[in-house]
Amino acid sequence: MARKEIAYFSGTGNSLAIARYVADKLDAELVPAIRAVDCSRQTAQADTIGLVFPIYDFRAPQCILDYLEAVPNIESKYTFAICTHGTAVPGRSLK
């Protein structure tokens, strides 16, 4: 069975609520992105990686970018992102 992982960053809890919902629906492991980066956690076993995070200054938070850098062979995995936002256009942050 393919492993699925949802990495999230949440400042106020909104992104965490969405990440929990998605992880439950996909039967995926929920991983705080900050802990994964700080602990040098390797996610090579996950075939599907979802990211849930708020938009900060038209981009993803640095811990999400660091998380992506730490994942070996990220190009060979199915990845998706869910961005939460207040007033900014979230699509720009996925560039």
How would you describe the overall organization of this protein?
This protein has 95 residues and is of the alpha/beta class. The protein has one domain: Rossmann fold. The chain has three helices and four strands. The protein is globular and about 35 Å long. 28% of the residues are buried.
Query: What is the number of domains?
Result: 1
Query: What is the approximate shape?
Result: globular
Say what the CATH topology is.
Answer: Rossmann fold
Residue fraction in strands: 25-35%
The sequence of SSEs as H and E is: EHEHEHE
CATH architecture, please?
3-Layer(aba) Sandwich
Number of helices, counting only DSSP H or I runs of 4 residues or more: 3
Spatial strand sequence of the major β-sheet: 2-1-3-4
The total count of strands amounts to: 4
Calculate the mean pLDDT score and round it.
Answer: 82
Query: CATH class, anyone?
Result: Alpha Beta
Structural class: alpha/beta
Low-confidence stretches: none
The Rg value, from CA coordinates, equals: 12 Å
CATH homologous superfamily (4th level) name? Flavodoxin domain
| Major pleated sheet | 4 strands, parallel
Give the termini distance in whole angstroms: 31 Å
Portion in helices: 25-40%
Can you lay out the helices and strands and say which pair or pack?
Elements: E1 3-8, H1 14-26, E2 29-32, H2 33-38, E3 46-54, H3 62-70, E4 78-84
Parallel strand pairs: 1-2, 1-3, 3-4
Concise synopsis of the structure shown:
With 95 residues, this protein is an alpha/beta fold. It has helices at 14-26, 33-38, 62-70; strands spanning 3-8, 29-32, 46-54, 78-84.
